[in-house]
Specification:
single chain; alpha+beta; eight-stranded mixed beta sheet; 10 helices
C-alpha cells in the first residue's frame, strides 16, 4: 500500500510540476511581449501614414510633445521600430515605474546599453559603436528585459526623436488615455494598425498551455482519488472489526491518513524533482530561482489537495453502510 501511494503521488507530482512550468513559461512570454512593462500594459502597433498631415514645424518637437503627454498622464512608454530603424528601444518613464530601466542619471536622448550585446562589447573596447545614434551619450549598462532579441540599447525619448513605425507599449488600459495617445501619434504621421491591452491575468487565462496542464492535473487528481478510495475499501473488513470494538470512522480516517502522509509527501517531491530534471536536461540549462519557487508552491499545493482528497475518500469508504448497520 505504501508503494502504491508513493507511485501515485509521484505521478501526480509530475503533473503538478508541469503546471508550475506552464505558469513560469507563460509569465516569461508575457514579459517578452511587453518588455516587462509593469502594471496593466497595452500595445499599439503603428505604421507610416497618419490621418492628419504632420506640421512641418511640429515634427522636430514630436518627442517633446509625446513626453509631455506621457508625463501629464503619469504613464511609461517603450517603443521598438520595425524595418531598417536602429536596434533600440525608445523609452519614456516619467514616474520611474519600469524596474529594469535605471535612468536616474540619464537625460533625454542618452543611451543605456544592454549588457553583453554587440554594442556593449564594441563600446567597451573602442568607446563607440556602429548602431549608436550620432551625438548620443552612453550613460551606463543595464540588464536587458525579456523580448529584446537583438536590440542593443535603450534610448531615452528626446525632444528631436523621430518616432518610428513599430510597437509602442504603455502601462495603462485606460481607453481615454490610449485614444489620446493614438491621436497624438497620428499628428506625427503614424497610423494605428492594432491596439490591444494584455494584462497578465488575462494573458494567463487565455494561454492554452496553462489550460492543458491544469486539465491534466485535474484528471490526475480524479484518478488518484479513485485509486485511494479503492485502497481504503480493500481494508473494510479490518475497519469493520475495529469499529465493533469502539473505533469511529473519523478515527479510522486519521489513522489511515497518518500512514499515508509521509509517503504522499515523498512521492510528490520525487515527481516534482523528476519533472525538474527532465526540463533541465532538455533545456540544457539549470532551472532559475523563480522556477524552483513555482515548483515548491506546486509541491505544497499537491500535498495539501491530496491530503484533502485522501481524507474525504477514506472517510467515504470507511464509514458504516446502512445495510451493515441494519444487519448488526
Amino acid at each position: 500500500m505504501k508503494l502504491r501511494v508513493l507511485v501515485s503521488a509521484g505521478l501526480l507530482g509530475v503533473l503538478a510540476a508541469f503546471v508550475g512550468f506552464a505558469f513560469d513559461w507563460t509569465i516569461t512570454a508575457h514579459g517578452e511581449v511587453t518588455y516587462e512593462m509593469p502594471g496593466e500594459p497595452s500595445t499599439i502597433t503603428v505604421g507610416i501614414g497618419g490621418e492628419e498631415a504632420p506640421a512641418e514645424d511640429g515634427l522636430p518637437q514630436a518627442g517633446r510633445q509625446l513626453r509631455d503627454y506621457l508625463t501629464s498622464r503619469g504613464i511609461a512608454l517603450l517603443a521598438s521600430s520595425t524595418g531598417d530603424g536602429l536596434p533600440r528601444l525608445i523609452a519614456a518613464d516619467p514616474e520611474n515605474s519600469i524596474p529594469w530601466l535605471d535612468a536616474s542619471e540619464a537625460a533625454p536622448g542618452d543611451v543605456l546599453l544592454f549588457q553583453d550585446t554587440y554594442s556593449h562589447r564594441q563600446w567597451e573596447s573602442t568607446g563607440t559603436g556602429p548602431f549608436l545614434p550620432a551625438g548620443a551619450t552612453v550613460r551606463g549598462v543595464i540588464t536587458s528585459p525579456g523580448g529584446v532579441d537583438d536590440l542593443q540599447y535603450v534610448q531615452l525619448l528626446a525632444d528631436d526623436t523621430v518616432l518610428p513605425p513599430g510597437t509602442y507599449v504603455v502601462n495603462t488600459r485606460d481607453s481615454e488615455v490610449l485614444n489620446g495617445l493614438t491621436s497624438l501619434l497620428a499628428t506625427f504621421g503614424l497610423r494605428v494598425h492594432d491596439s490591444r491591452d494584455i494584462p497578465l491575468s488575462e494573458f494567463l487565462l487565455r494561454d492554452p498551455l496553462i489550460g492543458v496542464t491544469v486539465a491534466l492535473f485535474a484528471f490526475g487528481l480524479v484518478a488518484t482519488a479513485t485509486h485511494w478510495i479503492l485502497l481504503s475499501a480493500s481494508g473494510l473488513q479490518e475497519s469493520r472489526i475495529r469499529r465493533q470494538h469502539g473505533a469511529r470512522s473519523s478515527d479510522l480516517t486519521r489513522r489511515e491518513l497518518a500512514g499515508r502522509l509521509p509517503w504522499l509527501g515523498l512521492g510528490a517531491a520525487v515527481g516534482v524533482c523528476i519533472a525538474a530534471m527532465t526540463v533541465a536536461l532538455v533545456g540544457r540549462e539549470p532551472l532559475s530561482s523563480t522556477q524552483w519557487t513555482f515548483l515548491g508552491v506546486c509541491w505544497g499545493a499537491t500535498v495539501l489537495v491530496s491530503v484533502m482528497i485522501s481524507a474525504g475518500g477514506s472517510y467515504a469508504a470507511l464509514r458504516p453502510r446502512k445495510e451493515a448497520a441494519d444487519a448488526t
